């Protein structure tokens, strides 16, 4: 089976390269949007703690909705194709970013914040120069989980007419072609592992620098 998959990659390399680029595009847009919104929401609920149960509750609730159901729910509003896929992936990617940003900031030693206030730092300076730098590793952990999950979840996007490596999986299933299904699945797994390794390496570098300070 591995030999058949390898031969399929060689024979259809342009097809798989195109799908891989589409997959990275859909996942990348979703990750970028979710990172920005998730970071903002995480900071917001850490500054206004009374809002945290409500916002975290909503993100947790949405996370429990099956991805196929959410895709189907959005089709009447955004149609079939990449737009619906990006919206769905973005929604699912929010929870890790919101939760880890909030947790990272909340776990900072209060005495450090008080020291910064005592030195005359403004709330904005404390946020940018103290809270976010100290919470970076926790935020990166959430980003790492979110990236892997988004790339993996992107495989279902083909079921609503979007592109990406899910197309290979879908074709394999509908034509009873196990080799095609495995080929698409392996590439998704490989992409997830590569980006997990990259973000993990960045996290280790940051932690090493913190230990040297």
UniProtKB/TrEMBL annotation:
Residues 20-199 form the ABC transmembrane type-1 domain. It is found in: Cell membrane; Membrane. Its main location: membrane. InterPro entries: ABC_transp_perm/SBD, MetI-like, MetI-like_sf. GO terms for biological process: glycine betaine transport; transmembrane transport. It is a multi-pass membrane protein. Keywords: Membrane, Transmembrane, Transmembrane helix, Transport. The chain crosses the membrane at residues 26-45, 54-74, 80-98, 147-170, 182-202. One of its GO terms (cellular component) is plasma membrane. Pfam families: BPD_transp_1. Belongs to the binding-protein-dependent transport system permease family. This is ABC transmembrane type-1 domain-containing protein. It comes from Clostridium sulfidigenes. The lineage of its organism: Bacteria, Bacillati, Bacillota, Clostridia, Eubacteriales.
